[in-house]
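Exercise 7.
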Amino acid sequence: MLVILSSAHDSTARSVVEAWAPWGAALCTPADLSTSGWRYSAGKPDEGAAVVAGQIVPVSTITGVLTRLPAIHADMLPHIHAADRDYVASEMTAFLIAFLSSLPCRLLNRPTAGSLLGPAWRPEQWTRTAAKAGIPVRPIHRSVRLSALSAPESEIAAEVTVIGDRILGGVEPSLAAWAHSLAQAAGVGMLTLGFALYGSGLALASANPMPDLNSHEKIDAAREFLLADSKEQRP
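Solution. The predicted structure, written as C-alpha coordinates, is:
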Protein backbone atom coordinates (compact mmCIF):
# COMPACT_ATOMS: atom_id res chain seq x y z
CA MET A 1 0.00 0.00 0.00
CA LEU A 2 1.15 3.52 -0.83
CA VAL A 3 0.07 6.15 1.71
CA ILE A 4 -0.30 9.84 0.90
CA LEU A 5 -0.30 11.95 4.05
CA SER A 6 -1.99 15.28 3.40
CA SER A 7 -4.69 17.75 4.23
CA ALA A 8 -8.19 16.66 3.32
CA HIS A 9 -8.35 19.66 0.97
CA ASP A 10 -5.17 18.89 -1.01
CA SER A 11 -6.34 18.39 -4.61
CA THR A 12 -2.86 17.29 -5.70
CA ALA A 13 -2.86 14.51 -3.11
CA ARG A 14 -6.20 13.27 -4.40
CA SER A 15 -4.87 13.26 -7.96
CA VAL A 16 -1.90 11.19 -6.80
CA VAL A 17 -4.19 8.71 -5.03
CA GLU A 18 -6.18 8.33 -8.24
CA ALA A 19 -3.04 7.82 -10.34
CA TRP A 20 -1.64 5.29 -7.88
CA ALA A 21 -4.91 3.38 -7.37
CA PRO A 22 -3.52 0.22 -9.06
CA TRP A 23 -0.86 0.11 -6.32
CA GLY A 24 -3.38 0.39 -3.49
CA ALA A 25 -2.82 4.08 -2.77
CA ALA A 26 -4.91 5.74 -0.07
CA LEU A 27 -5.14 9.14 1.59
CA CYS A 28 -4.30 9.65 5.27
CA THR A 29 -5.62 12.96 6.64
CA PRO A 30 -5.56 14.64 10.07
CA ALA A 31 -9.04 13.22 10.71
CA ASP A 32 -7.52 9.72 10.57
CA LEU A 33 -5.19 10.68 13.40
CA SER A 34 -8.22 11.04 15.66
CA THR A 35 -9.43 7.55 14.83
CA SER A 36 -8.73 4.63 17.15
CA GLY A 37 -6.34 2.01 15.79
CA TRP A 38 -2.90 3.64 15.68
CA ARG A 39 -0.11 1.62 17.30
CA TYR A 40 3.50 2.63 17.82
CA SER A 41 6.11 0.97 20.01
CA ALA A 42 9.61 2.43 20.06
CA GLY A 43 12.06 -0.10 18.68
CA LYS A 44 9.29 -2.36 17.37
CA PRO A 45 8.19 -0.78 14.07
CA ASP A 46 6.83 -4.03 12.62
CA GLU A 47 4.22 -4.18 15.38
CA GLY A 48 2.78 -0.79 14.51
CA ALA A 49 -0.41 0.14 12.73
CA ALA A 50 -1.86 3.26 11.12
CA VAL A 51 -5.34 4.45 10.26
CA VAL A 52 -5.58 5.31 6.56
CA ALA A 53 -8.84 6.41 4.96
CA GLY A 54 -10.61 5.28 8.11
CA GLN A 55 -9.17 1.74 8.00
CA ILE A 56 -6.60 0.16 10.33
CA VAL A 57 -3.50 -0.74 8.31
CA PRO A 58 -0.59 -2.84 9.67
CA VAL A 59 2.78 -1.18 9.12
CA SER A 60 3.98 -4.32 7.34
CA THR A 61 1.57 -3.59 4.45
CA ILE A 62 2.80 0.00 3.86
CA THR A 63 5.28 0.05 0.98
CA GLY A 64 5.84 3.81 0.74
CA VAL A 65 4.69 7.17 2.10
CA LEU A 66 4.38 10.49 0.30
CA THR A 67 4.05 13.40 2.72
CA ARG A 68 2.28 16.56 1.59
CA LEU A 69 2.33 18.75 4.70
CA PRO A 70 5.08 20.00 7.02
CA ALA A 71 3.01 19.67 10.20
CA ILE A 72 -0.51 19.25 11.49
CA HIS A 73 -2.10 22.67 12.04
CA ALA A 74 -5.04 23.61 14.23
CA ASP A 75 -7.19 24.64 11.26
CA MET A 76 -6.98 21.07 9.95
CA LEU A 77 -8.85 19.80 13.03
CA PRO A 78 -12.39 21.20 12.91
CA HIS A 79 -13.60 18.05 14.67
CA ILE A 80 -11.52 18.92 17.75
CA HIS A 81 -12.79 21.37 20.38
CA ALA A 82 -11.49 24.82 19.40
CA ALA A 83 -9.67 25.44 22.68
CA ASP A 84 -7.74 22.18 22.29
CA ARG A 85 -6.77 22.35 18.62
CA ASP A 86 -3.30 23.92 18.99
CA TYR A 87 -2.28 21.36 21.61
CA VAL A 88 -3.72 18.41 19.69
CA ALA A 89 -2.06 19.56 16.45
CA SER A 90 1.33 19.73 18.19
CA GLU A 91 0.89 16.28 19.70
CA MET A 92 -0.20 14.80 16.36
CA THR A 93 2.85 16.29 14.64
CA ALA A 94 5.22 14.92 17.29
CA PHE A 95 3.60 11.49 17.04
CA LEU A 96 3.87 11.45 13.24
CA ILE A 97 7.55 12.40 13.35
CA ALA A 98 8.23 9.39 15.59
CA PHE A 99 5.90 7.05 13.72
CA LEU A 100 7.10 7.91 10.21
CA SER A 101 10.77 7.90 11.25
CA SER A 102 10.38 4.29 12.39
CA LEU A 103 8.89 2.99 9.15
CA PRO A 104 11.15 0.57 7.26
CA CYS A 105 9.72 1.57 3.86
CA ARG A 106 10.72 4.49 1.63
CA LEU A 107 9.40 7.99 2.33
CA LEU A 108 9.25 11.25 0.41
CA ASN A 109 10.61 12.89 2.42
CA ARG A 110 11.68 11.26 5.67
CA PRO A 111 10.75 13.61 8.55
CA THR A 112 13.13 15.48 10.82
CA ALA A 113 12.59 16.95 14.28
CA GLY A 114 11.40 20.19 12.69
CA SER A 115 9.21 19.08 9.80
CA LEU A 116 7.30 16.13 8.38
CA LEU A 117 8.75 17.04 4.95
CA GLY A 118 12.43 16.80 5.80
CA PRO A 119 14.80 19.58 6.89
CA ALA A 120 12.95 22.65 8.18
CA TRP A 121 15.73 24.93 7.01
CA ARG A 122 15.76 28.69 6.97
CA PRO A 123 16.87 30.41 3.74
CA GLU A 124 20.35 30.89 5.19
CA GLN A 125 20.73 27.16 5.78
CA TRP A 126 19.76 26.24 2.22
CA THR A 127 22.13 28.90 0.91
CA ARG A 128 25.04 27.78 3.09
CA THR A 129 24.55 24.10 2.19
CA ALA A 130 24.33 24.95 -1.51
CA ALA A 131 27.50 27.05 -1.36
CA LYS A 132 29.37 24.21 0.35
CA ALA A 133 28.25 21.92 -2.48
CA GLY A 134 29.73 24.30 -5.04
CA ILE A 135 26.39 25.71 -6.20
CA PRO A 136 26.25 29.42 -7.09
CA VAL A 137 24.09 31.35 -4.61
CA ARG A 138 22.78 34.87 -4.23
CA PRO A 139 23.34 36.98 -1.12
CA ILE A 140 20.15 37.02 0.95
CA HIS A 141 18.80 39.36 3.59
CA ARG A 142 18.11 37.90 7.00
CA SER A 143 14.42 37.16 7.57
CA VAL A 144 12.31 36.05 10.51
CA ARG A 145 10.45 33.57 8.28
CA LEU A 146 10.90 29.90 9.19
CA SER A 147 10.03 28.72 5.69
CA ALA A 148 12.19 27.18 3.01
CA LEU A 149 14.34 29.39 0.82
CA SER A 150 11.97 31.17 -1.53
CA ALA A 151 11.92 33.90 -4.15
CA PRO A 152 9.17 35.64 -6.13
CA GLU A 153 8.00 33.41 -8.97
CA SER A 154 8.79 36.16 -11.47
CA GLU A 155 12.49 35.94 -10.54
CA ILE A 156 12.84 32.24 -11.33
CA ALA A 157 14.59 31.68 -14.67
CA ALA A 158 14.90 27.89 -14.42
CA GLU A 159 13.34 25.24 -12.19
CA VAL A 160 14.43 21.67 -11.63
CA THR A 161 12.88 18.89 -9.54
CA VAL A 162 14.81 15.96 -8.08
CA ILE A 163 12.91 12.77 -7.24
CA GLY A 164 15.24 9.96 -6.32
CA ASP A 165 17.84 9.71 -9.07
CA ARG A 166 15.61 11.37 -11.64
CA ILE A 167 16.05 15.00 -12.64
CA LEU A 168 12.89 16.56 -14.04
CA GLY A 169 12.55 19.88 -15.80
CA GLY A 170 14.53 19.54 -19.01
CA VAL A 171 17.39 21.68 -17.72
CA GLU A 172 21.02 21.84 -18.75
CA PRO A 173 23.45 19.34 -17.18
CA SER A 174 25.02 21.83 -14.77
CA LEU A 175 21.66 22.68 -13.16
CA ALA A 176 20.77 19.00 -12.96
CA ALA A 177 24.07 18.26 -11.22
CA TRP A 178 23.57 21.12 -8.75
CA ALA A 179 20.06 19.97 -7.93
CA HIS A 180 21.19 16.38 -7.36
CA SER A 181 24.08 17.56 -5.15
CA LEU A 182 21.85 19.73 -2.96
CA ALA A 183 19.24 16.99 -2.55
CA GLN A 184 21.97 14.61 -1.39
CA ALA A 185 23.46 17.21 0.95
CA ALA A 186 20.02 17.88 2.46
CA GLY A 187 19.29 14.16 2.76
CA VAL A 188 16.02 14.33 0.84
CA GLY A 189 14.63 12.20 -1.97
CA MET A 190 12.46 14.95 -3.39
CA LEU A 191 13.26 18.63 -3.89
CA THR A 192 12.47 21.44 -6.30
CA LEU A 193 15.03 24.19 -6.84
CA GLY A 194 14.55 27.52 -8.54
CA PHE A 195 17.44 29.38 -10.14
CA ALA A 196 17.48 33.10 -10.90
CA LEU A 197 19.78 35.27 -12.98
CA TYR A 198 22.64 36.61 -10.92
CA GLY A 199 25.75 38.24 -12.31
CA SER A 200 26.69 36.47 -15.53
CA GLY A 201 24.86 33.23 -14.77
CA LEU A 202 22.29 31.47 -12.63
CA ALA A 203 22.24 31.11 -8.86
CA LEU A 204 20.05 29.29 -6.39
CA ALA A 205 16.96 31.34 -5.51
CA SER A 206 14.50 28.87 -3.97
CA ALA A 207 14.31 25.40 -2.45
CA ASN A 208 11.12 23.47 -1.74
CA PRO A 209 11.03 19.93 -0.26
CA MET A 210 7.38 19.59 -1.28
CA PRO A 211 7.38 19.99 -5.07
CA ASP A 212 4.21 20.59 -6.99
CA LEU A 213 3.47 17.19 -8.53
CA ASN A 214 1.82 18.83 -11.52
CA SER A 215 2.73 16.30 -14.19
CA HIS A 216 2.40 12.58 -14.83
CA GLU A 217 6.18 12.43 -15.08
CA LYS A 218 6.65 13.68 -11.52
CA ILE A 219 3.89 11.49 -10.12
CA ASP A 220 5.37 8.43 -11.84
CA ALA A 221 8.88 9.28 -10.61
CA ALA A 222 7.63 9.54 -7.02
CA ARG A 223 5.88 6.17 -7.28
CA GLU A 224 8.95 4.51 -8.78
CA PHE A 225 11.12 5.84 -5.96
CA LEU A 226 8.74 4.66 -3.24
CA LEU A 227 8.42 1.19 -4.76
CA ALA A 228 12.09 0.73 -5.66
CA ASP A 229 12.59 -1.78 -2.81
CA SER A 230 9.22 -3.45 -3.33
CA LYS A 231 7.88 -6.20 -5.58
CA GLU A 232 4.93 -3.98 -6.50
CA GLN A 233 6.49 -1.93 -9.30
CA ARG A 234 3.78 -3.12 -11.64
CA PRO A 235 0.05 -3.16 -10.73
